Known about the structure:
This protein is mainly alpha-helical and 177 residues long. The protein contains 6 helices and 4 strands; from the N terminus they run E-E-H-E-E-H-H-H-H-H.
Amino acid sequence: MALQATPQRVTDGDRLPVPDALASERALTLTALKQAVEMWNTEKREAYFVGEAAYTHWLKWLRDVEAGTVEDPKSGMQGNGWCYDVLIHSRRIAGRWLNEKAEVLGDEAAPHLRTAATHYTQLAELCIEGYKCPWDLTLPPDRVADWTSAMRQTQISRLEAARTHDRAAIEAIRQAL
């Protein structure tokens, strides 16, 4: 059975009817913002930690690597680097998006969304500061011998600061809603 696309979703068969009117930009923005707040307070989506729980899990793993209690740190290095890269990339995009959407939601919500955007922009900047690429700090598994305690401590410190910015951004979004 071939996949089919409709304006609502991709299906594996029957097409859904196209509504007479698509959701407004305002409605879509509000839905996205509500989802961000909900995900921050959710522990997992399927097999993945999300929101605050993701930071807790990630920081615990890094601290356990640092303490020498992780049997095979190399096995988690690819995920560590990928997640760090995605964190920087997604928060940079979120900062720009929230600044754009501040105008969509209007005067009452706009200052809160701009505050959230500032937190996300600062989060991305602090995580990459001094590096050309996120992988310069996190290193891939084939460089496990080069992954120093100082690098892990730097990443832990930056992730703690990132979590503080993320928490503040989510609070600002909650206030915008």
